[in-house]
């Protein structure tokens, strides 16, 4: 299992960030390559992603026990029967928010440490030969997601 993690302190209260990350409809605003979100139900949603060539690809996700009190959210991608199954056995994304105070030096300022973790289990020959490439791509995706969150809340 490959696990890639990225963290950043964002100058916004955890509750404000939680309202963005907990609602899948906001994903196109901050998650890389998401064009739109469809079929949002209580514990599931579908992302429509744009590839670098402009082709649209659908990815279905299941929400795994969000914890609003702890500001922790986890999505599991549904892999079997999709084009992703050629490369992945599983893919899980976890977002954790932790309150931090006073990063701007202004009275009443608030900040949140945002950690996003992407865990992927690779299929076929990829675990041996492609893990470095997959990890690099995952790290870039997580940094872009943090950039997106920072852009919409700051």
What does the model show?
By secondary structure, this protein is an alpha+beta fold. The chain contains 4 helices and 7 strands; from the N terminus they run βααββββββαα. Helix content is 25%, strand content 40%. The mean pLDDT is 90. A hairpin with an 8-residue loop joins strand 4 and strand 5. The N and C termini lie far apart (34 Å). The protein has one domain: START domain (Alpha-D-Glucose-1,6-Bisphosphate, Chain A, domain 4), CATH 3.30.530. The chain has a 7-stranded antiparallel sheet.
**How large a portion of the residues is in β-strands, by DSSP E?**
35-45%
Helix content class? 25-40%
> Cα-atom Rg, whole angstroms?
16 Å
Reported by name, the CATH topology is Alpha-D-Glucose-1,6-Bisphosphate, Chain A, domain 4
> What integer is the average pLDDT?
90
Gist of the model:
The chain has 154 residues and is α+β, with helices and mostly antiparallel strands.
Topology record:
Layout: E1 2-10, H1 14-21, H2 27-30, E2 34-38, E3 44-50, E4 56-63, E5 72-77, E6 88-101, E7 110-122, H3 126-129, H4 131-153
Antiparallel strand pairs: 1-7, 2-3, 3-4, 4-5, 5-6, 6-7
List keywords for this structure.
4 helices; Alpha-D-Glucose-1,6-Bisphosphate, Chain A, domain 4; 25% helix; 7-stranded antiparallel β-sheet
């Amino acid at each position: 299992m490959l696990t890639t993690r990225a963290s950043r302190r964002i100058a916004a209260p955890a509750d404000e960030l939680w309202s963005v990350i907990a609602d899948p409809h906001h994903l196109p605003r901050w998650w890389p390559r998401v064009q739109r979100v469809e079929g949002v139900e209580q514990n599931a949603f579908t992302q429509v992603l744009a590839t670098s060539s402009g082709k649209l690809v659908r990815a279905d996700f299941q929400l795994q026990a969000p914890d609003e009190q702890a500001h922790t959210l986890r999505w599991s991608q549904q892999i079997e029967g999709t084009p992703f199954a050629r490369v992945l056995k599983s893919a899980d994304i976890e977002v954790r928010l932790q309150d931090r105070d006073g990063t701007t030096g202004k009275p009443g300022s608030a900040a949140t440490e945002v950690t996003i973790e992407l865990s992927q289990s690779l299929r076929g020959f990829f675990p041996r030969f492609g893990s470095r490439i997959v990890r690099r791509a995952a790290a870039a995706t997580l940094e872009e997601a943090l950039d997106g969150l920072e852009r919409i809340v700051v």
